[in-house]
Write a structure and sequence with these properties.
Low-confidence stretches: 1-25, 360-365
Largest sheet: 8 strands, antiparallel
Mean pLDDT: 90
Number of domains: 2
Oligomer: single chain
Number of helices: 13
Number of strands: 10
Distance between the termini: 37 Å
Radius of gyration: 20 Å
Helix content: 25-40%
Length: about 375
């Protein structure tokens, strides 16, 4: 059945948030999220996922919004491509598959664990130098295989291990202490903070610690979309130097190209982010815990989504809906843009987006 449209009141609230009448720095105010995704069962709405979304142009201007895209939130693992850009700027030079792993929330398969070990070995490091938390493999089949073999949670199988290996490697390259590389005062984390602020155009509204132990910044969906648009656009053209040769890649381009070329290293098989990059040529995509999804397009446009309840199942239907509104051919994404609701093993409902987007007018940039 057709997805319900927002009521007039909901649309008005969405436009108000985008117009900047409520600033993101107001304390004690809950974000004004909008209903983005519905789960229907036999034509009855069974569940509603609220959230916020934004689409930005290549120049960072706002194309469409829903909810409260200027409210600060924690991007979680969607920060990884930005962290990878900082490390490449600091001299990290890895094969494309390993650079993609640097920006990954990987499934913990053999190629992910082996890739992490390769990064460490290349720089004279070992697993004991990692400072991330321990966890079982993130991928369902990878986790089952790991447990079936009698193994337990390790730092190597934790989904951020590629990023942490690259962080330790960047310290070796620059002569910085490896021990304590997660401390916010460490030169590596100072560089990352500066790079994140540059790419997003924002200073953090708050700071915290991510699940793996890495410093974490509160930003807005608009800022994160700006960063992903920049990374995807940088990776789109292969520029040439004056003498006709290929010009050195910017760090943004190197990271974006690596992610596009090796989406299986960014996530893993049977992961929706991997499938999106495979089916949408030129896109650079990364998810994050608590219902976060970012997609940068090769023309510099970008989409950012945050699901308010942290529900993972709603972020991709909302994201695909925004991509479709931008004129992107989302037919190849049908398998990741929705999901059936089952009853007795048969489809009796659907997970689907509402008609949640509004186009802001006179947005204060």
């Amino acid at each position: 059945m057709p997805a319900p449209a927002l009521s007039a009141a909901q649309t008005a609230a969405t436009g108000t948030a985008a117009s900047g009448s409520r600033t993101a720095t107001e304390s004690g105010t809950l974000p004004r999220h909008a209903p983005l995704v519905l789960a229907t069962r036999d034509r009855l709405v069974e569940s509603v996922h609220y959230g916020s979304a934004i689409a930005t142009a290549a120049d960072g201007s706002i194309l469409a919004t829903a909810g409260d895209p200027l409210a600060p939130f924690y991007p979680r693992s969607s920060l990884k491509p930005l962290q990878a850009v900082a490390m490449v700027r600091a001299g990290l030079n890895l094969p494309a598959d390993l650079l993609a792993l640097t920006a990954a929330s990987h499934s913990g398969g053999a190629k992910h664990r082996g890739g992490t070990q390769r990064i460490l070995t290349m720089h004279g490091l070992n697993v004991g130098d990692l400072e991330n938390s321990t966890d079982l493999p993130y991928g369902t089949s990878e986790r089952e295989d790991w447990l079936r073999a009698g193994f337990h949670a390790t730092q190597l199988t934790q989904n951020c291990s590629g990023k942490h290996a690259a962080m330790a490697a960047t310290c070796v390259i620059n002569g910085w202490p490896v021990k304590g590389y997660l401390d916010p005062s460490h030169p590596l984390q100072q560089l990352i903070a500066t790079t994140v602020a540059e790419l997003t155009g924002e200073e953090p509204f708050a700071r915290s610690t991510d699940g793996c132990g890495t410093p974490l910044f509160a930003l807005t969906l608009r800022g994160m979309a700006r960063a992903f648009g920049t990374i995807a656009a940088a990776a789109a053209p292969i520029s040439t130097s004056d003498d006709g040769g290929t010009a050195p890649l910017l760090a943004e381009a190197a990271v974006g190209l690596a992610m596009r070329q090796h989406p299986d290293m960014v996530a893993g098989e049977r992961r929706d982010v991997t499938e999106l990059m495979r089916r949408l040529p030129g896109a650079v995509a990364k998810d994050g815990f608590e219902g976060v999804q970012l997609v940068g397009l090769p023309d510099g446009r970008a989409v950012a989504v945050k699901i308010s309840d942290g529900g993972d199942r709603a972020r991709m239907p909302a994201t695909v809906h925004v991509l479709k509104s931008l004129g992107v051919d989302t037919a190849p994404l049908a398998g990741v843009g929705t999901a059936p609701v089952l009853g007795g093993g048969h489809k009796i409902g659907l997970l689907q987006p509402t008609d949640f987007l509004s186009t802001p007018v006179n947005v204060a940039l």
